[in-house]
C-alpha cells in the first residue's frame, strides 16, 4: 500500500459526488452527555419495531425513528471530526498519491463543473475506446482490506459485517479516516462532506416523495440506517473485539450516515485477487467521473491487477470525461446516488401484476407463462421509451387477457411449443380482441396509478419554477413528475394501440399467422422477442438488497447486499450490459479478463451522488 507522506490533522469532511458542502471542523461537544444517557437513547432506537404492515404505518414509524435520531444528533453536536480545509485543497495530494501508486494521471485533472460538481477534465485529446485511466488494486478500499485492518478482529465475530460487505466498507472507511497513518487518507480527504441522498433530506423534503413509488425504499433506507447505527454503536462500546477500533470516542449518527452514503454512492464489485469471486470496493479517482448515457467502459484486468477505463467517446482537451453508471431508473439514482438525471434513457416505473389464484383459468395461464419463463406474479416496468413495455410485459399481458380457447391453443394446439416464443413479439398478436383487451388494461391501470398522486403534472412544473425551492425538494419533485410523465405516456400509448386494434377488428383485417418458417425471425439477434424469455425485471427487488435498505437482522440471507454490484455508488456496471436490471447490477467491462458467468458484475462505476 502506498503510504502518504503528508501529516494530517483530523476533523470531519467527507462527501458527496456532485454537490459539495464544506463542513467546519467540530470544536467539541456542545453539551456533556453521559454514556448512560446516550446508551438509553441508542437502546430505544435499536428496539424500535420494524413492521411492514402498511405504508401509512411505515410513515408513522419513520417519523418516530427520525425524532429519536434527531435527539441523538442534538446530543452529539460538535462531536464529529473532519479534515481541516476544503476537499479541493486535497485534490493535488490525491493525484500525487495515485501517481506514486502507479495509477494513470496524465490525461486528466479534477475540475468543478458547476451543477454537476467535481469530475474529470481531459488535459489532452482522448480517442473513443482509448485506455486513459487505470487504478491498481493497492489503491482500492475493499472488504478484503477491511478484514486485514483493525476492523478484522470484529469482522471475524460479527455476522452483520460478514453478511453485508457494504456495511463493512462503511466502518472500514470510518476507521481509516480516524487513523492518522492510513494509506487511504489522500483519498478519504477528497470525499464530499455530505450527500444529497434521501438520508440527508429534511422531513418536509421527504414529504414531496410520499405519493411516489420511491417512498417505501426511502423510508426503509432511513430506518435501516438508523438501526444499523444503533447496533454498531452498542457493538463498538461493548464488544471486546471492538476495543481497539478508533471509533469509541467519536462515532456519531452523522459519521455513520456519511460513511453509508459514501459507500452507497461509490461501491463497486471487482474480482478478488485469484479471480474466484467478487468483492466490494471503493475505487479512488475513477469514482470522480460523472454519469451520462452510453455503454459500460470500465473493467477489471486480472493480469495487471487493476481497474481499467476506456473513453466512452472522443474527448477534446478541457472537456469533461463521463462514464455510464448502468441502466438505473431515476428513482434508483435519487435513492442511491443523490441526483436526478434529466436525460435518463432508462427511466421507468414499477408495476406489480399477477394472475389471481382464485381465477378459474389460473392454472392454464400459469402454465403458459411458465413455458415462456415468466412467473404468474411479478414486478414489471413501464419505460419512458416507445413502446413503454418490454417483450416480457407484452407476453404477460397477452396471457393475462387470453380466453380459455386461446390458452388451449398455446398449450396443446398446432405448433404450441414454438408459438410460446411469439408471445412477446409484436408481429404475432394472439387475436385482435386480445390486443384490444391488453392495451385497454394497460391504459386503465396506468390511469389509476396516476390518480394516486396528490398533485398534477402541471402543479409539479409550477413548483419547479419557484426560485427558493431547496435542492432536495427540487430533486424529489423532479422524480415525482418523471414518474407521472411515464404513466401519462403509457395511458396515451394504450389508448392509441387500443383504437388501432379496434380498427383492425372492425375492418376485418387478417391476423398474421405463425408459421414454422417464422422461427428464423425469432432467432434473429435483432428480433423483438428473444428465443428464451428472460426472467422478469427483478432489478427492482435487487435494490432492496443494498445496504441502505438492509435491515439489521442476524440472518445473512436477508442482509447480504454484496450480491448487487454497484459502481460509484450508483452501481456503475463493470462489464455490465444495458439489459442489466437497474438495481445494482452494474458491472464493469472486464478488460482481458475471462468471465464464465455473464451475470456476475464486476467493476464499472456506478453512478455517484451529486456530492462528487
Q: Care to describe what's here?
A:
With 612 residues, this protein is an alpha+beta fold. Among the domains are: 250 residues, set domain protein methyltransferase, domain 1; 165 residues, set domain protein methyltransferase, domain 2. It is built from 22 helices and 14 strands. The strands form 4 sheets. A 4-stranded mixed β-sheet has the order 2-3-11-8, with no helix packed on it. It has a 3-stranded antiparallel β-sheet with strand order 4-10-9, with no helix packed on it. A hairpin with a 5-residue loop joins strand 2 and strand 3. The longest helix is centred in the last third of the chain and has 36 residues. The chain is globular, with a radius of gyration of 26 Å. The protein starts with 16 loop residues before the first strand and ends in a 37-residue tail after the last strand. It is an enzyme of class 2 (transferase). Its main location: cytoplasm. One of its GO terms (molecular function) is protein-lysine N-methyltransferase activity. This is protein-histidine N-methyltransferase. One of its GO terms (cellular component) is cytoplasm.
- The tally of helices reads 22
What amount of the residues lies in strands?
5-15%
Total strand count, please? 14
**Class of the domain at 88-337, according to the CATH hierarchy?**
Alpha Beta
Helix percentage = 25-40%
Query: How far apart are the first and last residues' alpha carbons, in Å?
Result: 24 Å
Going across the biggest sheet, name each strand in turn.
Answer: 2-3-11-8
Instruction: Give me the Rg, rounded.
Output: 26 Å
CATH superfamily of the domain at 88-337, called what?
set domain protein methyltransferase, domain 1
Parts with pLDDT < 50 across at least 5 consecutive residues: 3-31, 519-610
CATH architecture annotation name of the domain at 88-337: Alpha-Beta Complex
Structural class: alpha+beta
| CATH third-tier fold name of the domain at 88-337 | set domain protein methyltransferase, domain 1
Mean pLDDT level: 82
The main sheet comes to: 4 strands, mixed
Q: Judging from the principal axes of the Cα atoms, what is the shape?
A: globular
Amino acid at each position: 500500500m502506498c503510504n502518504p507522506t503528508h501529516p494530517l490533522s483530523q476533523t470531519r469532511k467527507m462527501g458527496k459526488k456532485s454537490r459539495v458542502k464544506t463542513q467546519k471542523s467540530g470544536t467539541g461537544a456542545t453539551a456533556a452527555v453521559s454514556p448512560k444517557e446516550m446508551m438509553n437513547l441508542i437502546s430505544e432506537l435499536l428496539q424500535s419495531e420494524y413492521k411492514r404492515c402498511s405504508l401509512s404505518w411505515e410513515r408513522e414509524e419513520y417519523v418516530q425513528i427520525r425524532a429519536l435520531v434527531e435527539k441523538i444528533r442534538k446530543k452529539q453536536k460538535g462531536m464529529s471530526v473532519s479534515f481541516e480545509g476544503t476537499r479541493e485543497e486535497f485534490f493535488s495530494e490525491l493525484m500525487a498519491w495515485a501517481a506514486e501508486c502507479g495509477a494513470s494521471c496524465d490525461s486528466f485533472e479534477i475540475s468543478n463543473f458547476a451543477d454537476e460538481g467535481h469530475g474529470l477534465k481531459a488535459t489532452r485529446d482522448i480517442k473513443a475506446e482509448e485506455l486513459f485511466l487505470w487504478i491498481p488494486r493497492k489503491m482500492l478500499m475493499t472488504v478484503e482490506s477491511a478484514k486485514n485492518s483493525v476492523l478484522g478482529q470484529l469482522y471475524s465475530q460479527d455476522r452483520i459485517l460478514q453478511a453485508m460487505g457494504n456495511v463493512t466498507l462503511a466502518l472500514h472507511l470510518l476507521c481509516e479516516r480516524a487513523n492518522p497513518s492510513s494509506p487511504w487518507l489522500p483519498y478519504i480527504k477528497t470525499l464530499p462532506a455530505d450527500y444529497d441522498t434521501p438520508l440527508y433530506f429534511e422531513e418536509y423534503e421527504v414529504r414531496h416523495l410520499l405519493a411516489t413509488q420511491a417512498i417505501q425504499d426511502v423510508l426503509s433506507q432511513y430506518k435501516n440506517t438508523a438501526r444499523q447505527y444503533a447496533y454498531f454503536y452498542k457493538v463498538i462500546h461493548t464488544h471486546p473485539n471492538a476495543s481497539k477500533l478508533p471509533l469509541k470516542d467519536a462515532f456519531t449518527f452523522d459519521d455513520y450516515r456519511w460513511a453509508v452514503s459514501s459507500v452507497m454512492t461509490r461501491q463497486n464489485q471487482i474480482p478478488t485477487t485469484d479471480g474466484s469471486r467478487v468483492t466490494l470496493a471503493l475505487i479512488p479517482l475513477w469514482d470522480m467521473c460523472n454519469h451520462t448515457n452510453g455503454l459500460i467502459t470500465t473493467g477489471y484486468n486480472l493480469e495487471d491487477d487493476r481497474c481499467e477505463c476506456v473513453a466512452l467517446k472522443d474527448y477534446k482537451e478541457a472537456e469533461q470525461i463521463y462514464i455510464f453508471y448502468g441502466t438505473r431508473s431515476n428513482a434508483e439514482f435519487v435513492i442511491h446516488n443523490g441526483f436526478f438525471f434529466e436525460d435518463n434513457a432508462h427511466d421507468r416505473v414499477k408495476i406489480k401484476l399477477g394472475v389471481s389464484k382464485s381465477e378459474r383459468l389460473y392454472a392454464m395461464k400459469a402454465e403458459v407463462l411458465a413455458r415462456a419463463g415468466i412467473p404468474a406474479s411479478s414486478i414489471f416496468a413501464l419505460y419512458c421509451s416507445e413502446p413503454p413495455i418490454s417483450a416480457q410485459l407484452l407476453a404477460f399481458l397477452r396471457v393475462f387477457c387470453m380466453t380459455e380457447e386461446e390458452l388451449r391453443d398455446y398449450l396443446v394446439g398446432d405448433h404450441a411449443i414454438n408459438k410460446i416464443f411469439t408471445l412477446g413479439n409484436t408481429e404475432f398478436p394472439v387475436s385482435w380482441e386480445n390486443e384490444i383487451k391488453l392495451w385497454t388494461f394497460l391504459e386503465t391501470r396506468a390511469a389509476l396509478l396516476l390518480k394516486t398522486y396528490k398533485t398534477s403534472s402541471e402543479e409539479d412544473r409550477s413548483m419547479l419554477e419557484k426560485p427558493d425551492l431547496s435542492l432536495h425538494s427540487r430533486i424529489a419533485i423532479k422524480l415525482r413528475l418523471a414518474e407521472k410523465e411515464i404513466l401519462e405516456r403509457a395511458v396515451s400509448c394504450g389508448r392509441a394501440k387500443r383504437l388501432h386494434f379496434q380498427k383492425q377488428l372492425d375492418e376485418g383485417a387478417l391476423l398474421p399467422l405463425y408459421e414454422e418458417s417464422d422461427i428464423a425471425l425469432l432467432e434473429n439477434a435483432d428480433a423483438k422477442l428473444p428465443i428464451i424469455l428472460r426472467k422478469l425485471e427483478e432489478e427492482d427487488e435487487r435494490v432492496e438488497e443494498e445496504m441502505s435498505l438492509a435491515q439489521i437482522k442476524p440472518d445473512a440471507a436477508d442482509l447480504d447486499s454484496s450480491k448487487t454490484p454497484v459502481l460509484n455508488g450508483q452501481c456503475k456496471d463493470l462489464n455490465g450490459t444495458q439489459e442489466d436490471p437497474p438495481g445494482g447490477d452494474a458491472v464493469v467491462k472486464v478488460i482481458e479478463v475471462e468471465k464464465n458467468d455473464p451475470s456476475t458484475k464486476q467493476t464499472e462505476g456506478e453512478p455517484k451522488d451529486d456530492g462528487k
